[in-house]
Design goal:
The protein has 464 residues and is mainly α. It is built from 19 helices and six strands.
């Protein structure tokens, strides 16, 4: 059992205790960050005269060799080691001898793991941002193609007013746009380097922490060594943002599932993103949408787990904080998989425009416009509201819609109606006359789409 701390102990650690304490089964994911951080650390040590140039070269060559061998499969990370830090250091010493023992000068595993986790999370924030950018590009393309695809807008899952598919998709564009903005906020706030904080109180070596931070792409070093090793706010923020992404994906998935149902038939999901039934040959199930909806809970669980872990921990580092990794790694992978698959499903999904338009008409989504028509003709709104309510009841009784009634039928309920009512309640009119910013009218939607294009062009994807 390879340990970095055995000098103080006279007995071998119990095997069960060792396994319970060990983290290499999951923190091996941090091998790149651990090696990259170590290279920066020894580069700084040599610059400060704490290591010789020969030792620096030997250590960096050894670390690069370990990295290459891990990635080509000739060096396996095994449970013989307690964690990824001991694995790298032990292998380095085996390869280069005495110089390898100087790698850990001026640092602790506390600031080392804080650095590794921060660097890994930073790269995950950037990768998530790239996937969000992809779904935004897909949505924008779909919006441009569906400016005149009419459909019902809903409140309480009841048909309310007519909108366009472009307008409906635009709501999700805004959600995922805010998600991207959160990625950038998190990245900016977390991008400070904890290396050099030591166990909790810094070190007596003359480290140049600003130089190390610069080498690793950080804005600068952290300013309090106790906070440096015990801070997981950045990870909590990221998990909260991932939970919000999943909430948005889950809402969208729910709508796709409803639209895919036999009752709605608004969409046709591509065969590559759906499955059949083992017993019912007619079935085409929206499995990807359902799984995305279902996986939302596990991402929420990771956030709640870390919040619960951190809530009772005194300063500074405590072993509880090892629990920041497994569920966080799972949440990061889950969200990225969901974004990738959901974007593919969207990009290949076909919309049944005729069915969507018919649904909008049959759901009396033009009732508000019919009432507005009467108001323009001089009928007080409250009276107009009541008249259209009676008109809807009449249509329900006759199993028809407002636009299919004859003028005589309309006049039997209110003699103010005239021939122009039919144009006033057409889907095109109902949508196109809504031209306030944020509404579904075509001209204002075109303007919004141009603004969204400008947003994407001026909001570059984060660098991993």
């Amino acid at each position: 059992m390879a340990q970095l701390w055995g000098g103080r102990f006279t007995k071998e650690t119990d095997k069960l205790v060792y396994d319970f304490n060990a983290s290499i089964s999951f923190d091996q994911k941090l091998y790149k960050e651990d090696i990259k951080g170590s290279i920066a650390h020894v580069t700084m040590l040599a610059k400060q005269g704490i290591l010789t140039e020969d030792d620096k070269v030997a250590i960096i060559d050894g670390l690069n060799g370990i990295l290459e061998d891990i990635e080509n499969g000739s060096l396996q990370i095994t449970s013989e080691y307690e964690d990824i830090h001991s694995f790298v250091e032990a292998n380095l010493i085996d390869r280069i001898g005495e110089a390898g023992k100087r790698l850990h000068t001026g640092r602790s595993r506390n600031d080392q793991v804080a650095l590794d986790m921060r660097m890994y999370t930073r790269s995950q924030v950037a990768q998530t941002d790239a996937l969000l950018n992809s779904i935004l590009e897909t949505l924008l393309s779909m919006m441009e193609a569906n400016l005149d695809t009419y459909m019902p807008g809903f409140t309480h899952l009841q048909k309310a007013q007519p909108v366009t598919l472009a307008h409906h998709l635009g709501a999700y564009f805004e959600m995922f746009k805010r998600d991207r903005q959160r990625m950038h906020d998190i990245y900016e706030r977390m991008n400070y380097c904890p290396l050099g904080a030591g166990a909790l109180a810094g070190t007596t070596y003359s480290l140049d922490r600003a130089y190390t931070a610069e080498l690793l792409g950080f804005t600068g070093p952290t300013l309090n060594s106790m906070d440096s090793v015990s801070d997981r706010d950045y990870l909590i923020e990221f998990l909260a943002a991932l939970s919000t992404i999943m909430m948005h994906l889950s809402r969208f998935s729910e709508e796709v599932i409803i639209w895919n149902s036999n009752e709605y038939r608004f969409v046709e999901i591509d065969d590559a993103y759906s499955t059949g039934s083992s017993i019912m040959p007619q079935k085409k199930n929206p499995d990807i949408a359902e799984l995305v909806r279902g996986k939302t809970g596990r991402v929420y669980g990771a956030l709640m787990s870390l919040l619960t872990t951190m809530k009772g921990i005194p300063l500074a580092y405590n072993k509880d904080m090892q629990e920041d990794k497994e569920m966080a790694f799972d949440a990061m992978n889950t969200v990225q998989d969901c974004l990738h698959l959901f974007t593919g499903m969207l990009d290949t999904m076909k919309f049944r425009k005729d069915v969507m338009a018919e649904s909008a008409m049959n759901g009396f989504t033009n009732a508000t416009d019919a009432a507005d028509y009467l108001v323009v003709k001089g009928v007080p709104f409250r009276d107009a509201h009541g008249i259209i309510g009676r008109l809807v009841l009449y249509c329900i009784d006759k199993n028809t819609s407002i636009d299919k009634l004859s003028l005589e039928e309309l006049k039997s309920i209110c003699d103010v109606f005239d021939e122009d009512i039919f144009d006033a309640v057409s889907l095109k009119t109902c949508v196109e006359k809504r031209l306030t910013l944020g509404a579904p009218g075509m001209e204002i939607m075109k303007r919004v789409i141009e603004e969204e294009k400008e947003f994407l062009a001026g909001f570059p994807v984060l660098e991993a």
